[in-house]
Amino acid sequence: MSFPLPLPMRRALDLAAEAAIAGEVPVGAVITRDGKEIAEARNAMRSGLDPTAHAEMVAIRRAAEALGTPRLDGCTLWVSLEPCAMCAAAIALARLDALRFAAEDPKGGGVLHGPRVFGQPTCQHRPDVLGGIGEAEAAAQLRSFFAERR
């Protein structure tokens, strides 16, 4: 039995597809609060000449601006790929309540892999984490993107 993806994850995957078309690694992110979208973004490192312009970072900045606060209490981040260590640290600093992601990232992930940021004793905030939502589609996007470049 197949279930439809939650709308924020569907949007994150669509943003990831847009990123790939633009020549960026296909990652998209959406931030919601009380079921409403607050901010969204896709990877923009190449186009913005900014190595920190990961989809999660841009979405966090936009959500903070939209809400007028750096604390994103009550918000959920939906992202198509497991966040890296930089993004995981930003998630903790922004105090996001929850993280939902599609594909795991064994090489560059910072949540379930690598440094496991939320499991470190120095991490002062740990969001509720759930992965694997839309994993097959996200993994296919990434495989296709990198296969075209090899």
TrEMBL record:
Q: What class of enzyme is it?
A: hydrolase
Q: Which residues carry out catalysis?
A: E56
Q: Which PROSITE patterns match?
A: CYT_DCMP_DEAMINASES_1, CYT_DCMP_DEAMINASES_2
Task: Recite the UniProt cofactor note for this protein.
Answer: Binds 1 zinc ion per subunit.
* EC number of the protein: 3.5.4.33
Tell me, which GO biological process terms does this entry list? tRNA wobble adenosine to inosine editing
Gene3D superfamilies, per the entry: Cytidine Deaminase, domain 2
Cofactor dependence: Zn(2+)
Q: Which Pfam families would you find in this protein's record? A: dCMP_cyt_deam_1 (PF00383)
Q: Name one GO molecular function term.
A: tRNA-specific adenosine-34 deaminase activity
The CMP/dCMP-type deaminase domain, residue ranges: 3-112
Q: Matching InterPro entries, A to Z?
A: APOBEC/CMP_deaminase_Zn-bd, CMP_dCMP_dom, Cytidine_deaminase-like, tRNA_aden_deaminase
State the oligomer form and interacting partners: Homodimer.
Q: What does this protein do?
A: Catalyzes the deamination of adenosine to inosine at the wobble position 34 of tRNA(Arg2).
Q: Please report the name of this protein according to its UniProt entry.
A: tRNA-specific adenosine deaminase
| Source organism per UniProt | uncultured Sphingomonas sp
List the taxonomic lineage.
Bacteria, Pseudomonadati, Pseudomonadota, Alphaproteobacteria, Sphingomonadales
